[in-house]
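Ticket #4471: structure export looks truncated?
Reporter: QA, pipeline team
Priority: medium

Steps to reproduce: submit the single chain below to the structure queue and open the exported record.
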Amino acid sequence: MKIAAPRLRAQLDSATPDGIDDEDRLLDLDLEDVDLSDTEAEHVEISGCRLTRSKLAGSELEKLILVDTELTQCDLANSRWADASLTRVAVTGSRMIGFAGPGANLQHVTVRDTVLDFASFRFAKFQRAEFTDCRLQSADFVSADLTGATFRGCDLSGVEFSQVKAAKAVFVDCTWDGAKGLASLAGATVAAASPIDTLAFTSAVTVASGITLAHPDELD
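Actual output as written to the record:
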């Protein structure tokens, strides 16, 4: 599954917006060290932009349209982007603890080296998305469509997968300690280079299914 990279102009305009209002459009901008924390707005479009070390923590951007955009070392912690649409977006080395994207639609999105502990993607649709070397401890994917998602080298400890669609999802070398709802991953592909990791996933599925593994001597 090849994921398209953001398409940015060679030269971007530098800008330092004071804030964002409903239906604002940020186009072809280089946004470095910009603080837009706690911004509340609807139907905002951010297209062709590069955000570096910028802060959107605590933002509420309902129905955000994010297209052809790179976010590097950004702070998106505790943001809520309900029903957002992300297309050709790359997130790298960022902080997304407690991020919420209920009902979001992700197409050609890559997330790398990013912390997403306690993030929530309920009812989100991952058409083409890849998470690489990310920490998603206790994240929530309840009722999400993961059929176009790939997770590589991710920490999925305590993640909730109940009622997801995962027929074509791929998981490679991930950590599964305490993950829940694993029965919903029917049809997904799980690969691990280490036999220990394979056993850990098998054990997690067994526990999630309510099955107890025991030695015969323990049953006497």
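Status: closed, not a bug. The export was complete when the record was re-opened. Leaving a note from the reviewer for reference: The chain is about 5% helix and 30% strand.
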